[in-house]
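User: Here's a structure from my thesis project, written as structure tokens. My advisor, Dr. K., wants to see whether a designed sequence matches the one we expressed. Can you design one independently, without my sequence as a hint?
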């Protein structure tokens, strides 16, 4: 499964060739919700040369508490047998890759969401390391009602980012 290569290389190259884009990281952002939030941060943290801004809505920013969900064992192996892959590929353990404020970040999570704890812990880790970011927590659950509101904040954030 080559999602990382597909999105960060093949898709970007295809879009830049087919459309009149600005092929600079300052003109690119990525976001997602739930496991897509993990994916957006994963790709942005690993490819800061490609993405200038990244967002996550109710993201699964620490996959380790869910060793049997979302076909993760098919991608990383069983947690008990391949713990090193899980540790290496969970977003919350990738903060060390961030270079100051070179990547603009926004993420949020509802306080009744099962991913809330991981989002809060990532926020605290970023604060501890003085990495600028926008973090929002508010009432809400892991559902479309929450995300319909969340996307408004994400779009405002990205609109302001692209105006710079």
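Assistant: Designed independently from the structure alone:
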């Amino acid at each position: 499964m080559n999602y990382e290569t597909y999105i960060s290389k093949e898709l970007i190259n295809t879009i830049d060739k087919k459309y009149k884009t600005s092929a600079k990281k300052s003109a690119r952002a990525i976001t997602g919700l739930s496991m897509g939030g993990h994916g957006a941060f994963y790709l942005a943290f690993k490819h800061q040369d490609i993405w200038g801004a990244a967002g996550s809505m109710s993201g699964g920013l620490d996959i380790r508490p869910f060793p049997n969900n979302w076909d993760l064992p098919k991608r990383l192996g069983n947690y008990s047998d391949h713990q090193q892959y899980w540790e290496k590929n969970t977003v919350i353990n990738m903060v060390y890759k961030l270079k100051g404020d070179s990547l603009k970040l926004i993420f949020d999570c509802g306080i009744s969401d099962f991913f809330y704890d991981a989002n809060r812990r990532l926020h605290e880790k970023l604060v501890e390391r003085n990495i600028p970011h926008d973090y929002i927590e508010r009432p809400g659950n892991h559902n479309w009602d929450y995300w319909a509101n969340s996307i408004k904040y994400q779009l405002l954030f990205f609109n302001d980012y692209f105006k710079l």
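When you compare it with your expressed construct, this may help: The mean pLDDT is 89.
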